[in-house]
Predict the structure.
Amino acid sequence: MTGIIAAMQKELSELEKHIENASYRQLPGTSFISGTLYGHEIVAAVCGIGKVNAAVCAQRMIDLYRADRIINTGVAGALSGSLHVCDAVVASYAVQHDVDTTALGDEIGFVSTVNTVRFETDKETNEALLRSIRAVGLRGTIGGIASGDQFISAAQDKQRISSLFSCVACEMEGGAIAQVCRINQIPCAIIRTISDGADEDASMSYAAFSDLAAVNSAKALLHFFKNN
Ligand code: ADE
């Protein structure tokens, strides 16, 4: 059973159209759709924006649907100068750039209890996702993705996050989902398509391109399910 999590409806709509034998379950804050996608057992949900929403959704998928892998899809801001709007990124690892206990002697981004900065993703899924990205005609990159409860829209913040964590893109959920997957010892993958440059023009670019970017990420993910 693969869980598919998007923060916003526009990031899931394209994929939802192809779910067969769908059944719906409404829980406080989130509605879950389970069924099959090209023969794969899946459960999909729009979790809402941010790390806590994403974590609650991931844990519910594991507890209630026995999800044994979770894939996060959606849009992201570019941290790398070589990424452009509608390019796709697969996370080789996720970090949480807003976790900071450096005052206590920890490394920036260190998440205690799980005791790591980097949450590695599933290599096999990543490679297959990259193949699908290319097959649907998008440019695909693999690299670190930085998550935090902030929409990044200033060159200074962008620069800080990319240099601290060597990440190529930023968003607001992937790191939390990866942490939940780590705690539950199941594989995780993150596929995101660039909607903006995480700089002073980010809100304008996001308004103009996030719909298209969201559909592209879902299309690549659909190709992945169809061909794996
Ligand atoms: N998702 C898409 N663009 C983003 C940005 N600039 N910051 C955080 N999350 C995003």
Summary: The mean pLDDT is 97. The CA atoms of residues 51 and 176 lie 5 Å apart. The pocket of adenine is lined by residues 75-77, 151-153, 170-172, 195-196, 198, 202, 206 (CB under 6 Å). The chain is about 35% helix and 30% strand.
